[in-house]
Design goal:
Protein name (chain B): Mitochondrial ribonuclease P catalytic subunit
CATH architecture of the domain at 247-423 in chain B: 3-Layer(aba) Sandwich
Distance between the termini of chain B: 67 Å
CATH topology of the domain at 183-373 in chain A: Alpha/beta knot
Shape of chain A: globular
CATH architecture of the domain at 183-373 in chain A: 3-Layer(aba) Sandwich
Number of strands of chain B: 9
Oligomer: heterodimer
GO molecular function (chain B): metal ion binding; ribonuclease P activity
Shape of chain B: elongated
CATH class of the domain at 247-423 in chain B: Alpha Beta
Helix content of chain B: 40-55%
Number of helices of chain B: 20
Largest interface: A-B, 42 and 45 residues
Family (chain B): Belongs to the PPR family. P subfamily.
Helix content of chain A: 55-70%
Largest sheet of chain A: 6 strands, parallel
Largest sheet of chain B: 5 strands, parallel
Radius of gyration of chain A: 36 Å
Order of helices and strands of chain A: HHHHHHHHHHEHEHEHEEHEHEHHEHH
Structural class of chain B: alpha/beta
Catalytic activity (chain B): Endonucleolytic cleavage of RNA, removing 5'-extranucleotides from tRNA precursor
Strand order of the largest sheet of chain B: 4-3-2-5-6
Strand content of chain A: 5-15%
Enzyme class (chain B): hydrolase
Distance between the termini of chain A: 104 Å
Strand order of the largest sheet of chain A: 3-2-1-5-4-6
CATH topology of the domain at 247-423 in chain B: Rossmann fold
Order of helices and strands of chain B: HHHHHHHHHHHHEHHEHHEHEHEHHEEEE
Number of strands of chain A: 8
């Protein structure tokens, strides 16, 4: 007993529990556990320990202490804040509050930011800038790392290369470019035309136009690199339109040297009407084969707000034939809209032109949009589908399915 | 992480921080969980102290989180202190912190401070509607009704839609008060509900009822009731407004429909000019119809039957009493196929007028046009809710008109008991909005228990009448 008491006293005197030591001393017969739990709730109810109380508001004094020099110099500045600067300040504060906001913002971006009418649009725009900034930073970091690694390998492999004595001249990028240009130039004389309809500017927001132009730059690139390029036409192209300005942003001075035909005429003025086929996902007609004598038109529109039937309406107005890709026929569709990006369209059309193989061509549809190709015989497909359905809907559905199958076979025999 | 139960010393915070997997996020994560667990603010203070002492500064982010904790617990003096510090340290405060400050202060006895903060917010941006909500509630709680109304009108002038809570607060806090001006304001709010086709919730309905009954010398009495299908109130025998549009509204709706739904941005998107022209002359030569039927929609009612059989049944049901029918369909219905038998189609064409649109045209737009052209008595049959067409209308007023007209003129039918299918779920003959005659008010309300779809109108009403 004596030793246990001694032990208790020791604990109570320890610095972690100074408070308990004061009031618990008189009752040293208390069992250990009880005194500890008591101290816990006492402490919660009554944090009147002098040392603690001083501590709790210490942060305020720290925060206020640094203030005078900060506030004095800004008082005069504060009054003449222009709206632009005020917006900049709020954006800055949002960043401090941990919202998704870019670190650096240009004056131009601030102006667009202020032009948005709704708060959610402003928020979205800031997030967009933030992500853009993040990508840029990451890219830069990766580039730096790569450069360092290259330098290291260079130092290590300083002895002369054996490849130097190779009799083939290495084809550098400029030579490749020359070869590609030859091919494209040839296609401008003999190649099959492919028209991009550039009349959708008023249906799109500025960002959608920028995206469309980016996609067109991609598709021009892959056309140039292909074995048998199309002769690309940009029809309905207005001088100094938003399209034009975006293109110049991408190509700079190369814009004048591109091996494509750009015209402000409509395709109906350039080509005979009966040869034109407008490709649109809304078309009721499905494309069966790629026709080498026809001229296909692709609407250069990015519609994030799902405007159905815009391009179909255009084709209807001009009385053109329309066609859609046979996506349903070859692919088990999963999610996503049936409209594809312009560069995917270009890849698909190029492959079709070269091989006529739908399966190969439709490889360029994004994988997330479909489960797989409709390759196996139809009855096997039905089996898996019915399996999926039974798993989803239970047994009852299976019976319905059987009934349906019976009816179906009846119909077949009747015919 | 779980926040500690009592304030910790610096070393203890350090220890906790080191054991955390990403120490640079430690304070943020800890504060978030403190807000979630509603920890005592002393714990938060001790962490702030620790941060301030080790870094010499507390970041804005942490201050806002601390502020959120204080607001959550109604610690007014702390809110004040944080505001002072923020104001001096950062010059500009962003909207998140203002929201918290206004919310926190409006619930305390220093609610007037929230008003000055609201003024401050106005200098930089448009305050949110919840900002106004807190201030209005605070003002009306302290019986400053004039101030509350002033804020309310200011809010409306800024195109902010008041929350139902704000309106309810007005009814709650002006209970038993006298004043013609006040009464006019509150009646105005009820008319606001009427104009926007908003139905109050049950609790709000009680506030309205109690307010009416508390008007000194008003002699108002309220009763909860169901309105009969005929549109008569069982309590006061008053006949509710019918669902017909006025002549002006009707013409307005018709014009807007042609302009926005059929023409839209491009007439070619839904039809073509030739086709629309042909349809217009077709309709004008045969006007007026009594019922317009969406042929394709009706033909899919019963999947076990052939499409044309379904349509045939529907026509037989509807063709009573010499009603003039118009069926809208597409050209593909005319080609003899397994679902569309030519002889049945021929027989049907004797009973009703048919118009076949191109296969890629939208027949719904024609349906609406034909019904509206025929006049107010004409009804239409489809299961479609026509949401996409309503969405094409450009302003909300016309959309409300469209919904009202649709409620009165669309005949829906259910799949069950196929024989009685076309003995319609009757189109409502009375208008389901807040309405008044001066001596009576009828207010439809949502029951909290029953779930409500946007297309369904409430069946429960509050009837208020003045006893002479």
């Amino acid at each position: 007993m004596q030793s246990a008491n001694m032990f208790l006293k020791k604990i109570l005197r320890s610095p972690a529990l100074p408070f308990v030591a004061q009031c618990g001393m008189k009752k040293d017969l208390l069992p250990l556990s009880r005194s500890l739990s008591l101290s816990l709730c006492l402490k919660k109810d009554n944090p009147c320990n002098h040392k603690e109380k001083l501590d709790l508001d210490a942060w305020k004094t720290v925060m206020k202490s640094g203030l005078p020099e900060v506030s004095s110099e800004t008082v005069s500045e504060h009054k003449e804040l222009s709206t632009l600067a005020a917006a900049h300040k709020t954006v800055e504060m949002w960043r401090l509050a941990g919202r998704l906001v870019p670190e650096n913002i240009t004056e131009e971006q601030l102006k667009t930011f202020m032009e948005f009418s709704s708060k959610s649009a402003q928020k979205k725009y800031l997030k967009f800038l933030h992500l853009k900034e993040l990508y840029k930073k990451n890219n830069k970091r990766k580039m730096d790392e790569k450069r360092e690694r290259r330098l290291e390998t260079k130092e290590q492999a300083s002895e002369p290369d054996e490849a130097r004595r190779n009799s083939f001249v290495c084809l550098w990028a400029s030579c490749m470019d020359k070869a590609y240009s030859w091919r494209t130039a040839q296609s401008m004389i003999f190649g099959q035309p492919l028209v991009f309809d550039m009349s959708y500017e008023k249906d799109m927001s500025a960002r959608e136009v920028a995206n469309a132009v980016r996609q067109m730059v991609f598709s021009e690139g892959c056309n140039r690199r292909s074995a048998d390029p199309f002769h690309i036409y940009f029809c309905n192209f207005k001088e100094d339109s938003l399209y034009h300005r975006e293109f110049i942003k991408h190509y700079r001075e190369a814009w004048g040297k591109l091996l494509i035909t750009v015209t402000d005429q409509c395709y109906t003025e350039v080509f005979p009407k009966d040869k034109l086929i407008y490709l649109t996902a809304d078309s009721p007609k499905v494309m069966k084969t790629f026709d080498h004598d026809k001229i296909y038109i692709v609407g250069s529109i990015v519609d994030k707000s799902i405007k159905t039937g815009v391009s179909l309406a255009r084709a209807k107005r001009l009385g053109l034939e329309t066609a859609a890709l046979p996506l349903e026929k070859y692919l088990l569709w999963n999610i996503g809209a049936k409209n594809l990006t312009l560069d995917q369209m270009m890849h698909i059309l190029l492959t079709l032109k070269d091989t006529g193989d739908w399966k190969k061509a439709l490889e360029f549809v994004p994988k997330r949009k479909y489960f797989g190709f409709v390759s196996q015989p139809i009855h096997e497909l039905k089996k898996t589908l019915s399996l999926v359905n039974t798993l989803k809907l239970g047994r009852r559905h299976e019976e319905l399915q059987k009934q349906f199958a019976k009816n179906y076979s009846k119909k077949l025999t009747r015919k | 992480v779980e926040p500690p139960e009592m304030p910790l010393q610096a070393e203890e915070w350090n220890r906790l921080k080191e054991s955390f997997r990403s120490p640079e996020m430690f304070e943020t994560v800890m504060f978030n969980s403190m807000i979630k667990c509603n920890s005592p603010i002393d714990v938060a203070k001790s962490l702030l102290t620790h941060v301030a002492k080790s870094d010499g500064d507390v970041s804005y982010n942490l201050l806002v989180k601390y502020l959120a904790l204080c607001v959550q617990q109604g610690q007014t003096s702390e809110i004040h202190d944080v505001y002072d510090i923020m104001k001096r340290r950062f010059k500009v405060i962003e909207s998140g912190a203002y929201n918290l400050l206004i919310r926190g202060l409006s619930n305390s006895d220093q609610w007037r401070m929230a008003l000055t903060l609201l003024e401050e917010v106005k200098k930089v941006m448009v305050p949110s509607r919840t900002n106004y909500e807190s201030c209005i509630k605070a003002a009306s709680r302290h019986q400053e009704m004039n101030l509350a109304f002033e804020l309310y009108h200011e809010m409306l002038a800024k195109d902010l839609v008041p929350t139902l809570d704000v309106l309810q607060a007005f009814f709650d806090f002006s209970r038993g008060m006298k004043g013609a001006e006040l009464q006019k304001e509150l009646f105005g709010m009820l008319l606001h509900l009427r104009e926007n086709q908003i139905y109050p919730r049950k609790t709000f309905m009680w506030s309205i009822k109690l307010w009416f009954e508390s008007i000194p010398g008003g002699n108002w009495r309220g009763h909860l009731t169901h309105i009969k299908d005929s549109g008569q109130c069982p309590v006061c025998n008053h006949q509710l407004e019918d669902s017909d549009l006025t002549e002006e509204e009707y013409n307005n709706l018709r014009e807007k429909l042609v302009r926005d739904v059929i023409h839209g941005t491009d007439l070619f998107r839904k039809t073509s000019p030739q086709e629309f022209q042909a349809f217009q002359t077709f309709v004008e030569n045969r006007l007026p119809f009594d019922i317009v039927i969406d042929g394709l929609n009706v033909s899919h009612i019963n999947p076990r039957k052939m499409h044309c059989e379904n349509l045939f049944d529907a026509l037989n049901c509807l063709a009573k009493e010499n009603a003039r029918l118009l069926v809208l369909g597409r050209k593909h219905m005319l080609t003899n196929s397994s679902n569309w038998k030519r002889d049945i189609m021929k027989e049907m064409q004797n009973k009703a007028d048919f118009f076949f649109a191109e296969n890629i045209s939208e027949d719904d737009a024609f349906l609406l046009y034909a019904t509206l052209q025929s006049g107010k008595h004409c009804k239409f049959v489809t299961r479609d809710f026509l949401r996409d067409h309503k969405a094409c209308l450009s302003d909300s007023l016309t959309r409300h008109l469209f919904r009202k007209w649709q409620r009165g003129h669309q005949i829906a039918f259910s799949k069950k008991n196929f024989l009685s299918v076309f003995i319609q779920q009757p189109a409502l003959c009375y208008d389901c909005v807040v309405q008044t005659t001066g001596d009576t008010w009828h207010i439809p309300y949502k029951d909290t228990l029953e779930e409500k779809y946007s297309y369904r109108v409430p069946r429960k009403w509050l009837c208020i009448q003045r006893k002479k």
